[in-house]
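#struct-queue
[09:14] JT: dropping the first one here, sequence first, then the structure tokens:
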Amino acid sequence: MPAFNEQASVGDVVREVQQKLPGVTVLVVDDGSADATTQVATEAGALVATLPFNLGVGGAMRVGFRYALENGFDAVVQVDSDGQHDPAGVPALLAGLDSADLVLGARFAGEGDYAVRGPRQWAMKLLAAVLSRTAGTKLTDTTSGFKASGPRAIALFAEHYPAEYLGDTIEALVIASRSGLSVAQVPVAMRPRAGGVPSHNPLKAATYLGRAALALVFAFIRPKSTYRVGGSV
């Protein structure tokens, strides 16, 4: 659970995960927050890794994957700490790992009423078209942060999870697909944020299309051999 300045919501999210998914290990990676995120998450009962400065979602997730790999976990589910992801959707994501290495929780696949407009919508459709071709399966929500990774994805992402802008979504999918991992999606509903500050606004959305395109280009021009992990993937 990557978290950056999420003191308003992270405690409730941790408690909800523990209530709906009893027995799971909850790791919050505090990505250099300036508020009380670490304290609130700890008091809620989560394991907490506190980074000394902000690395971005990708850097925080790589910490989580390395923890999972070193401690023998065979499945990792990313849940945002702002309350938008309903933990009740986790069993469906895990069930998808029976036939895929990486399973995305898709917001535009028939569940819920989440919607985007303008440049952000155009970028998402473009990314879905390109990355569906790359992954060899139809994907409708390639920027979802609600996803499950199986053993092969954990080994790969512990070494190569990208920290660049949109790297945790776009480039991670390209890396997985070009490394031979299978990708699938299951429909999920998105909830409103329970606290914190949104990562985008109308002004930022106006630049989203161009930045997404650049992220896609950089993901594809990186040599495929960069992604190998000692031949284990």
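[09:21] JT: and here's the second one, same format:
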Amino acid sequence: MFCVGDIMHKNPVTIGPFESVGRAAVLMNELKIGGLPVVEDGKLAGIITSRDVRYCHPNRLVADAMSREVVAVSPECSFWEAKEMMESHGIERLVVVENGRLVGIITKSRLYAEIGKHVDALTGLNRAEFLQHKAAELLQSGQEITVIFLDLDNFGAIDKEFGHVIGDEILQQVGKILKSITTEGLDYLCRYAGDEFAVVTVRLLEEAKQLSWQMIKALADASWPQGIKVTASAGVAGGRRSRVRGEPNGTHNVRDLINLASLASTKAKREKRPVVVAGWVELEEVG
């Protein structure tokens, strides 16, 4: 899992609560940064931003101008969790705290640049890492989840016969079609790898199965470059967080669930069946 601790600015410049607002402003100007964590006795006491100093006399104390309600995360916080926190609070930076002590700071620009590396440039969809993160997050929130793994049929032959440019056009169109079918807040789509796409959804197994059929049909019914016929095979597997460890049949993790759906799609392709359902598994406690 990709965590904030991997990319945060370590040992950030800080200021004390009893220093002046003018001193904070000078530091921010010199360092070309928009905010300073305020630390007292080694512990995070607040944060002061360029907006705070703009409306406060420079002789006032930092303690009078800073915000004491600091949105903080741990170094283990994932990129996507950090992004959601920044967006929900409308802030440009997060302080990173471990055992009550400031250990780093992560800015919006730095975070978005890293997240951009996990977005597929061809389709604009998230990559596989996002699927694993989202599946774990949904399980932690107590929701049952289902994974749909979708693999295009004979895509290698299409690439060889029509070339990679046409192949890329097809992958882009597949991404758009699948995105148009999925529902924000219910389904989380990614390009898993090559000609493989996957969705983690909070729909129950039967409803997710219907969604996979819709996807298969939409691809089969679409018009494709040069009259190419594009079909796909899908595997579906559902999971719920196990409440009891050491169950007779053992438990699985998120990676196992994704793998089950992947193997089901391979079986579907081998048996020339559009959709194969692997069923439910119990998943290990996460987090």
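[09:30] RK: nice, looked through the second one.
[09:31] RK: Residues 244-249 have pLDDT under 50 and may be disordered.
[09:31] JT: good to know. DSSP finds eleven helices and eleven strands in the chain.
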